[in-house]
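To assess whether the prediction recovers the assembly geometry, we first specified each molecular entity separately, as shown.
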Amino acid sequence: MSLSRTCVKTVRFLNKHTVGLDLNRYRGVIDCWPNPRNAICLTFDDGPSGHSTFTILDELARHGVRATFFCTGKDAVAHPNLVQDIVASGHEVGSHSVNHPHFNNCNLRQVFSELAGSRRILETIGDCPVTCFRAPYGSFRWEIRPLSRLCGYQHLIGWDVGPIHDEIDSSAIADFVIERTVAGSIIDLHDGLTDQSAELSSAVSRAAAGSLRRILPELISRGFIFKTVSEQLTRSEASEEPLSA
Ligand SMILES: [Zn+2]
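The predicted structure of the complete assembly is given in tokenized form:
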């Protein structure tokens, strides 16, 4: 058996047996930073959404907080004005693929297409650099790091504080986040819910927006400072190494 064929078989084996295990650090995925300055990141997936993204932007502005929105290409095309509002408000746009597939069910050509296509769509609509990628469902296959570099991404971003993705109780979301956030955390909320009914997606996104009314003042009162992912990376690279959760 040739060396290349052996390598392909090895990566297939690793994808089948290790996705879901806590191996993000070895896959090049950043889940949090050991940040002594109390800096944290607030991120949103599966948007932008006509249900709540504008409400979230209002709530963030009220508290002077900037966040990172991991948008899907298809939702960006559906709501280009919201992507532009996100950028105009000083937030960061990251990529969450075009169609939100589970990468374990995709071949490499499809993965590459999702990576390249979403960056192209988001940079065109938002007129902003898109340097960070978060895989749908957190399915960071071993091949994603080299493919993402080929597509122009600099960083793969996970999270260490993530309430259940279909939680519709804003108090439960707030309790979860407030209890678990530590210096360097990356918080993962949803301003939409791809691949689910419009009704559930709306409920989830409204719950996330509602949870911010407690999360933001509480974490600010504890001395946490909100940074976009790229801001945090710039500080981190100048001082300390990022860690996986
Ligand atoms: Zn997602």
